[in-house]
Write a structure and sequence with these properties.
The relative contact order is 0.03. Strands 1-2 form a two-stranded antiparallel sheet. With about 130 residues, the protein is mostly helical. It has four helices and two strands.
Length: about 130
């Protein structure tokens, strides 16, 4: 004797309504899986970008810390002032080194400071008296 539940279950599974419901459920689950896979790829790319940015910021922090340590010393402050403001101590002199290709456009004045030669219009205005 057959169980009536088994035949009822088989009839329900093989009915067009059940097949349509199962097909829709499979479609929804497959679409969700594809969407999740896309989000995983985007998240991996963002993670890689964030790690690169973090490494860059850590390097920048180390550079700034080294610079602060250097500027905390008297020697560092003096070197920075000399570089930035072209300052000299009392008794020191500044030497200007001119490349030989540029020396045609530069002449020495009586004070020893290099000045550029005046152009055509400047000489013309001087000749006129302006």
């Amino acid at each position: 004797m057959k169980y009536s539940n088994t035949s009822l279950w088989r009839r329900f599974i093989s009915s067009p309504f059940a097949v349509i419901v199962l097909a829709v459920a499979v479609f929804i689950l497959a679409r969700a899986a594809i969407n999740i896979q896309g989000k995983v790829q985007v998240s991996a790319a963002k993670l890689e970008q964030a790690q690169a940015e973090y490494a860059r910021l850590v390097q920048r922090q180390q550079d700034i810390a080294r610079r602060v340590d250097y500027l905390s010393t008297d020697q560092g402050v003096e070197a920075e002032i000399r570089t930035k403001y072209h300052a000299v101590k009392d008794g020191e002199r500044v030497a200007v080194i001119v490349d030989s290709s540029q020396s045609a456009n530069v002449r020495q004045s009586a004070t020893g400071i290099a000045t550029s030669t005046p152009g055509f219009w400047r000489r013309l205005l001087r000749a006129i008296g302006l």
